[in-house]
Amino acid sequence: MFGIAPLLPGSTSTSTARIPPQLPCFTLKTEKWSTCRLVDLDNDLVTAINYGHLRKTRISNNSFITRYSSASTMASGLYDQSKRVWIWTKSKQVMTAAVERGWNTFLFSSKNRQLADEWSSMALIEPLFIEEADLLDSEHKRVATILAVSTPQELEKLQPENWMAENVLVDLLDWQIIPAENIVAAFQGSQKTVFAVSERPSEAQIFLEALQHGLGGVVLKVEDMEAVVELKDYFDRRNEESNVMSLAEATVTRIEVARMGDRVCVDLCSLMRPGEGLLVGSFARGLFLVHSECLESNYIASRPFRVNAGPVHTYVAIPGGKTSYLSELRAGKEVIVVDQKGRQRTAIVGRVKIETRSLVLVEAKGNSDDQTVYSIFLQNAETVGLVCPCEENKPQKTAVPVTSLKVGDKVLLRVQGGARHTGIEIQEFIVEN
């Protein structure tokens, strides 16, 4: 799909490699653009949006890119700022969906200047033009370079010192995961940014997470606008992780041993540290921070991947500000792991175990004038505990086992709206007891 650009250190030639029309070469100026979208159109249609405005841009040979800036109407989070997205499509609907989500850089073929002008009349964009192995801006300055990688030898040549451009676009034609990891390792500490072409949001996610740090960006090559929506949802979930969740201090007001119930153990694909757990509760209005089983004991080995989260009816916090019933969790679903200070991250559910066990009811109230009662059922066992607030000038205490819990003890709570429809918070009158 791509021609291979020459890898000659210090070379200034921009035309020694020929790249077929489908794929442009480009380097992205990170100071200027937050994301961009690359599109290939039979009718030479290209669009780009910058800082909330749409602007037409041309490229060579039936290709175009959409460019978005950080000042778009969509609020960008830390993950949006550190990772960039370019869109490659023939679909105007895909372009529109990308623009609406704050991705606003467009790539055009050099033959599509009329199309660039057309889109520029609709919105403010900065056009980029494909010229053989390079992507040029309107002043004919090189912005990026493209390389197709289909062999280990080609991958081995992909080193920061071999490229004059600020950014490199890579099309991984054979293997993807291992080459992406090798690229991340090779370019770590470099000022250059590497983008990879992906045809599915799941593929883009692999590139963005390779070796934890991921590549600097992706080119999403799709014709279905739902792919843009899905990728933006992924960015939103990652942005949530950079936000500190507000947790309230609550006072335990009632502890009562109950009878048997079907409780759920949630086993994650990630290890949890002391102070971390899941937010769960009988009512969505108040979710308790239930500690993981990462603490050592004399009678049973620690299981730092597990949270004994409560009965099947219990709500659990999931990404996107939503809740799910514990009974609905399955392998592959995502939940939010939170620590004592409200720091959060997303984790994948690896397994859910439902077993019949004896339960205990815990009720608590906030420390303000609000007399709302929050409650949770948990398995009555020494390995199940609630996370405590951090106390200054005192030894760090992470959790209190439910078997040692007393009225008056302090625990952490996430207070939020109580009305839910399919896990989504809504505004309506509701009474739950």
Descriptive overview:
One of its GO terms (biological process) is amino acid biosynthetic process. InterPro entries: DHQS, DHQS/DOIS_N, DHQS_C. Pfam families: DHQS, DHQS_2nd. Residues 250-433 form the 3-dehydroquinate synthase C-terminal domain. It is elongated, with a radius of gyration of 26 Å. Helix content is 15%, strand content 37%. The longest helix has 17 residues, at 225-241. The strands form five sheets. It has a ten-stranded mixed β-sheet with strand order 1-4-6-7-8-9-10-11-12-5. α2 (92-100) runs parallel beside α7 (225-241). It has seven helices and 26 strands. The chain is of the alpha+beta class and 433 residues long.
Characterize this entry briefly.
By secondary structure, the chain is an alpha+beta fold. The protein has helices at 78-82, 92-100, 113-120, 152-157, 177-187, 201-209, 225-241; strands at 35-40, 48-50, 53-55, 63-68, 84-88, 105-109, 128-131, 134-136, 142-149, 167-172, 193-198, 217-221, 248-268, 277-283, 286-291, 306-311, 315-318, 322-325, 334-338, 344-366, 373-379, 385-387, 399-401, 410-415, 420-421, 424-425.
Key phrases:
433 residues, alpha+beta, TIM Barrel, 2 domains, 10-stranded mixed β-sheet, 7 helices, elongated, aromatic amino acid biosynthesis, DHQS_C, DHQS/DOIS_N, amino-acid biosynthesis
Poorly predicted runs are 1-75
First-to-last CA distance: 61 Å
Instruction: Give the proportion of residues in helices.
Output: 10-25%
Spatial sequence of strands, sheet with the most strands: 1-4-6-7-8-9-10-11-12-5
Spatial shape = elongated
Count the E strands: 26
How many domain regions? 2
Major sheet description: 10 strands, mixed
Q: Measured on Cα atoms, how large is the radius of gyration?
A: 26 Å
Helix and strand composition category:
alpha+beta
Q: What is the arithmetic mean of pLDDT?
A: 77
Q: What portion of the residues fall into strands of 2 or more residues?
A: 35-45%
Helix count from the secondary structure assignment? 7
